[in-house]
């Protein structure tokens, strides 16, 4: 099942080129009182919401997918966990290109660990990317995004996928420079989650997915998640050995080789097998 958030926080089921407006199903989310629990309320109650959505689908209003504005399918992740240098070919290109390495020694993900991006950097396909710092390089990085479905702490590799509710496409926009990744990658609009959430049952093996990215029609990135250094279960095990993941938390699982700069006005198109494809525009001027 493909679940999207669109227009003014409407909830949709995507089938073919149509969106079924099942926003009424959001009534399955219990009322909350302050202080709110960590995580995203939709994802925390996703089974109940989807059960109601299925019952509504037959009579739900339909819209053409091309006519709606897609927002990030997860509205309120408490954290966006990122896996740096998680493809060997990307490690190799970073060692060759000081525009990527910027003086840092490129080792392995085991040496660097994971890093966090601010949830305030999150946007959807319709919202666009607004670059900053025209004197510096701004790069694209396509990644499989893993959506955590329930609270996870000290999870074993063997059980890791039981904590996943679905997948999406992550675009980790990156300002190159000497600062720590969490700082220069948390700029507003530098975390794209699109176009929708695909439920876990639609992706039998997240370690066997083709992924690709083009800029203005030119292919930049094409690889497979089978080439990850740490696969999805290992990333979940690794992350939860350090901190608790909450419903709706995102793991951007790393980018393959082919990263490169974009400029204002560019169109980025990214896709992942079994998940989907989307296009997003870079704003015509710098923030």
Describe the secondary structure blueprint for this structure.
Blueprint: E1 2-6, E2 10-15, E3 18-21, H1 41-44, H2 46-57, E4 62-64, E5 70-71, E6 80-82, H3 88-96, H4 98-101, H5 109-112, E7 115-117, E8 122-123, E9 138-140, E10 142-148, E11 164-172, E12 174-175, H6 181-184, E13 191-199, E14 210-215, E15 218-224, H7 232-240, E16 250-252, E17 260-261, E18 267-272, E19 276-281
Parallel strand pairs: 6-16, 8-13
Antiparallel strand pairs: 1-2, 1-5, 1-13, 2-3, 3-4, 6-7, 9-12, 9-17, 10-11, 10-16, 11-13, 14-15, 14-18, 18-19
Q: What is the number of helical segments per DSSP (H or I, 4+ residues)? A: 7
Structural class: alpha+beta
The share of residues in helices is: 10-25%
CATH superfamily of the largest domain: Fumarylacetoacetase-like, C-terminal domain
Which CATH-level-2 architecture of the largest domain? Answer: Alpha-Beta Complex
């Amino acid at each position: 099942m493909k679940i999207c958030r669109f227009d003014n926080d409407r909830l949709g089921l995507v089938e073919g080129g149509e969106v079924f407006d099942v926003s009424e199903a959001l009534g399955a989310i219990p009322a909350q009182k302050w202080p709110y629990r960590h995580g995203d309320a939709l994802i925390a109650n996703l089974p109940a919401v989807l059960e109601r959505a299925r019952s509504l689908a037959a009579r739900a209003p339909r819209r053409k997918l091309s006519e709606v504005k897609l927002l990030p399918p997860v509205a309120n992740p408490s954290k966006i966990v990122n896996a740096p240098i998680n493809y060997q070919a990307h490690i190799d290109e970073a060692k060759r290109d000081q525009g990527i390495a910027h003086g840092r020694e490129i080792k392995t993900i085991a040496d660097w660990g994971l890093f966090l991006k601010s949830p305030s950097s999150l946007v959807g396909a319709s919202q666009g990317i607004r670059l900053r710092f025209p004197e510096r390089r701004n790069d694209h990085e396509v990644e499989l995004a893993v959506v955590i479905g329930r609270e996870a702490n000290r999870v074993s590799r063997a059980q890791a996928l039981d904590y996943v509710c679905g997948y999406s496409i992550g675009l980790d926009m990156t300002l190159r420079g000497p600062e720590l990744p969490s700082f220069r990658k948390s700029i507003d609009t530098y975390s794209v989650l699109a176009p929708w959430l695909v439920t876990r049952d639609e992706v039998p093996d997240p370690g066997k997915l083709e992924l690709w990215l083009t800029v203005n029609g030119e292919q930049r990135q094409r690889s497979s998640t089978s080439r990850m250094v740490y696969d999805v279960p290992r990333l979940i095990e690794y992350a939860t050995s350090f901190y608790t993941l909450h419903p709706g938390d995102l793991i951007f699982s790393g980018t393959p080789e082919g990263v490169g700069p974009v400029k204002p006005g560019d169109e980025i198109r990214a896709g992942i097998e079994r998940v989907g494809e989307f296009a997003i525009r870079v704003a015509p001027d710098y923030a």
